[in-house]
Every structure is written in C-alpha cells, then in structure tokens.
Amino acid sequence: MASISSLGVGSNLPLDALLTNLTTAEKGRLTPITQQQSANTARLTAYGTLKSALEKFQTANTTLNNADLFKSTTVTSSTEDLTATTTAGAAPGIYTISVNKLAQAQSLSTSIDISSTKDALGDTSAESRTLKIEQKGRKEPLEIKLTKDQTSLEGIRDAINDADSGISASIVKVKEGDYQLVLTSDTGTDNQMTVSVEGDSKLNDLLAYDSTTGTGNMKQLVSAQNAQLTVNGIDIERPSNTITDAPQGVTLNLTKEVTDARLTVTKSNDKATEAIKGWVDAYNSLMDTFTSLTKYTEVDPGAEAQDQSNGALIGDSVVRTIQTGIRAQFTNSGSDGPFKTLSEIGITTDGTTGKLKIDDEKLDKALKENTTATRQLLVGDGKETGITTKIATEVKAYLADDGIIDSAEDSINATLKKLTKQYLAVSASIDDTVARYKAQFTQLDTMMSKLNGTSNYLGQQFSAMSSS
C-alpha cells in the first residue's frame, strides 16, 4: 500500500510512518503462506525431475529387456563383392557362397518415335481406357484408368508412378524430338510384365507387350532374371539380390557374381555388453537425481532456517518407495538359471553411494561362458521373471497416471489451490485493516488539527487579556 505523505500534517504526529510500519507488520501475515507456496512449488518441480529421470532409466531398461541381445552375431566376408548382416539367432559357422547370376528387373520401352511428351497419344473418341499390367507374382493385375488428358507420355508416366505398385515409369530423351517411355519392374522373373490397354486401341498399339511370348509393340531392354547362387553347395534361387533366409538369420547383399566367397558368422556379446553398460549408467544417473532431490546439509544448532541447498524432497516417502522398489529387484529375479543376483555377473552396488559398478572381466566371462544364464537373470521370460522385466513393471506403475508420483502431484496442486485462496483472503483482510487504520489516523489528524487550532486561539486570547 502506498504511503500517505499528507497524513500527520494537521497533528504534527508521525502518523504516516506509523501507518507504514503497521502495514509492514500486517503483510507479515502473508509470509508463512508464501513460504508454503514456494516449498510446494519446489516439490512439484522436483517430482517432474524425478519423473523425467525415471523415464530415461525406463528407456535403458527396455533396451536391455530384449532376449535377442544375447543371441547377437557378427559376420565377415572374404570379399567386398559379397556383404552380409546378421540378425538374432543366426547360427555361427563358415559359409562358402558362389553367386552365379544376379537378379534383374525387366525393363520395357516404347519402340515408336514420339516427338512430344505432352501430346495425347490415345484415341480421343474413346470414352474410357484402362491400362493393365499383369505379373505372375501379383494376385491381381495393376489396373489404372486413364483420362483423355492422361494419354501423353507424361500423363502415363505419372499415373503409373502414382499407383505406387513397384513398377516405375520414366521418360528417356533419345534425341531432340524423339522420346521413349520406359517401364521397369521389381527384380525377378515373377515380376515380368504383360501390358495392355482396354478401351483404347490406339494406346494399346503403343504399349502392348506379352512377356509370356515376348511379342508386342514395346521392346524389352532388360529381361527379368532371378538371382542364382550356391550356399555350401546347395543351389538357391531368389527373385531379389537381397537374400534374407539362406542361411536363416543372415542377410546376403548380392552386388556381383563371385566364386567361393567365405562368410564367417561368429557369436558376439558387443550389443549385450553395450546395453548392460547403458543400463548401469542410466541407473547411476537416476541415483544422482535421488541424491540431489533429497540432499540435506546440516546447520548449526539454533539456526532459524535450513540450508538453502537442501533438496525439495528430503524425507519424501515417494522417493524412498521408488528407491526401495527398484533395488529390491536386484536380488529378486525369479531366475531358474544358476545366476540369482547381479553381483554374480560382475555388477555390484557401492555401499557408500548406492551406485552400480561393473567388473568388466567378470561380466565378459559371464556373457561368454554362461550367455543363457545371464539372459535368464536379466530378461527372464519377459513377462514375470528377470530383473529388467520386474523393474519395467515397477517403473511403469510409478509413472502411471494413477501412480504414486501422479498422486503426489495431485495432492500438491490441491494444496497450492488452498494456499492461493488463503493468500487472497489474508491479503483482503490486510487491505481492510490498513484502510481502517488510515481512516482512524485521518480522523485523529483532523481532530488534533481542530484542537490545535482551538488551543492557539485560546492562547492568543489569554495573551491579549494579560496585556490589557
């Protein structure tokens, strides 16, 4: 409330300063409320930080909660002309591979000189026309209805490409005033094309081609062909140059014809090790968050306030519940294998900080010699057993809309609403009190001014009487 500079002039009393002091004293009633608001707002922010840290840990936990990590392999090739990748479950071994033929995509082109890419090529009197492309590998033929405006090279090209069928169309400029339409299918003999146009004989004369007989007005630039190769002496034929099932779990990328290329598939623990280390790092980061949110700095006896660096969630039951719940799973895997705790695979807890640390040598040995047991300990059946499986269930419950964090936030928000109402009520009360003080001081000032005026008058009269 602003000071009233004229208050006290009539009485020569420090009423203005007195009203300011009383106002300050009254406003002190708001301090406990604002302190509670600040504390609760800080707790709300802290819960947001806690939730974010849990989500990051859950991401790392989900990555590790994958049985395929423990079935990983790597592959090397004796030649750059044959490359390969592996997926989970690929059988380790050495494979001798010869590529005799690469898969090819059939390519057809118009054989008549076409001077413009925009001129209509169909029969303008035809009411409708349908471009049909049949392929053995397709259950139903590709049928595209063309309007009169779509019978130019550009119109046909765009209509085919817009169908997104695996068949592509392009226009090739042979020379000035000489253009060709080129159709290209996916690789493999089952994708060779038989083309016709129904309802427009003129356009059919331009585009017709029968791949079963090799006849038609279009010409074949490249014939369809399957990839042919041998894997350890077994003859393999596929429509694509990407072979995903010979052998299973290995993807071959054919780029050239090769003879007796050697692929070596070996077991690898790199992905599992990376995921475990990422999981440990994420858990330790979560522990840092716990420590920051519950930090306590001791103050001297008799101090009026706590240290300002203290965490917003000191002694908070939600934090304790989450910490205890996650840690409990480290020795509660329910594994049927020989490993029952993290320490048995080289992951131990620091007694001082509560963080995890890895014995690289012990972990490497566990992954090499007891891969299945390590997987059983960490992943289990992926539903009920396994450390990461159980942790995933725990953390999911903590982060749920009706979980303990959400409930705590709802409680704080309700408290903040009450404090806001309380603040407004007290503030209004203060304004009323100060207004009452001001009115009283104004009356006092007026009355004192009148009394002072009367006193001065009487004094003057007494002085006049004494003089006479």
From TrEMBL:
Coiled coil spans: none
Compartment(s): Secreted; Bacterial flagellum
Q: What does UniProt list as this organism's lineage?
A: Bacteria, Pseudomonadati, Pseudomonadota, Gammaproteobacteria, Enterobacterales
Ranges of residues in domain Flagellar hook-associated protein 2 N-terminal:
11-106
Protein name per its UniProtKB record: Flagellar hook-associated protein 2
**PANTHER family (alphabetical):** FLAGELLAR CAP/ASSEMBLY PROTEIN FLID, FLAGELLAR HOOK-ASSOCIATED PROTEIN 2
Q: Which residues form the Flagellar hook-associated protein 2 C-terminal domain?
A: 224-452
The species this protein belongs to is Citrobacter enshiensis
Its biological purpose: Required for morphogenesis and for the elongation of the flagellar filament by facilitating polymerization of the flagellin monomers at the tip of growing filament. Forms a capping structure, which prevents flagellin subunits (transported through the central channel of the flagellum) from leaking out without polymerization at the distal end. Required for the morphogenesis and for the elongation of the flagellar filament by facilitating polymerization of the flagellin monomers at the tip of growing filament. Forms a capping structure, which prevents flagellin subunits (transported through the central channel of the flagellum) from leaking out without polymerization at the distal end.
Q: Does the keyword Cell wall biogenesis/degradation apply?
A: no
Q: How does it assemble?
A: Homopentamer.
